[in-house]
Amino acid sequence: MTNTPKPVIGLITDMRDLGGMPFQVLGDKYAQAVAEFADAVPLAILTSRTGNDIERLLDVFDGFLFTGSPSNIRPHLYGEAGEGVGPFDDARDALSLPLIRAALARKMPCLFICRGLQELNVAHGGTLHTGLPDPDAHHSPEDAPYEDRYAPHHEVILKPGAGLDEVFGSARFEVNSLHYQALDRIGEGLSVAGTAPDGIPEVVVAEGQPFAIGVQWHPEFRPAQNAPNRALFAHFGQAARAWRAQK
């Protein structure tokens, strides 16, 4: 055992209207997954109307978790015309996209979940499908009980040679699915490492990075009951500890 402090992971929050007032919120399951399964200290990152100090954030944290969210990215940010389908979160867009570029420029460990994966793609010049041909194939019923909404929904198949079998512990595994949008054109410097059976990208890696993995499902939901999700968080924590050790 060493006395090396645990790495500190910055978690991206959402701006939401609650009772007519703006609140910055974070799902508890993200914080608990980081604390328990990445063995790291989770800290929420709050946006500021006066601007986000990206360089200071890079100095404070040892890695970043770009969380999932009910909100979508504004279409104009990836070159699409029209208003798109909300809800939207302009405050989050203004923080996440430049933070992704800056963090990866430093080769900091980053994990991107659901909306976070879509942010990764947009930050690198990629685009999104704003609607899927069969939404039910990738989103459990909205009115289903909480447990059912996060139940396994389809399989993910890692691409041979992607180098992620160790990260997930398996080349094929079942995942939950709660997204209505998906990646279209893949951004520069990114590669698809795993797909759903219908070909929708489910795992993306940023090339040349020690740890920069995006997933379209929600691995933070009860990792104790899902070995691939548990392994993903463990590897994220290891990468953050390695980053902290060399600071």
Short description:
By secondary structure, the protein is α/β, with parallel strands linked by helices. It has helices at 28-37, 54-60, 90-105, 115-123, 146-149, 165-168, 227-246; strands spanning 8-12, 14-18, 21-25, 41-45, 63-66, 110-113, 128-129, 154-158, 172-175, 182-183, 190-195, 201-206, 212-215.
**Which structural class matches the secondary elements?**
alpha/beta
Measured on Cα atoms, how large is the radius of gyration?
17 Å
| CATH architecture verdict | 3-Layer(aba) Sandwich
- Overall tally of structural domains: 1
Q: Biggest sheet, in brief?
A: 9 strands, mixed
Strand content: 15-25%
CATH superfamily: Class I glutamine amidotransferase (GATase) domain
* Helix amount: 25-40%
Give the class-level CATH name: Alpha Beta
User: What is the tally of helical segments?
Assistant: 7
Distance between the termini: 20 Å
**H/E element sequence:** EEEHEHEHEHEHEHEEEEEH
**Adjacency order of strands in the biggest sheet:** 4-1-5-6-13-12-11-8-9
User: Which stretches are low in confidence, meaning pLDDT under 50 for 5 or more residues running?
Assistant: none
CATH topology descriptor: Rossmann fold
Which helices and strands occur, and which strands form pairs?
Blueprint: E1 8-12, E2 14-18, E3 21-25, H1 28-37, E4 41-45, H2 54-60, E5 63-66, H3 90-105, E6 110-113, H4 115-123, E7 128-129, H5 146-149, E8 154-158, H6 165-168, E9 172-175, E10 182-183, E11 190-195, E12 201-206, E13 212-215, H7 227-246
Helix pairs in contact: 2-3, 3-4
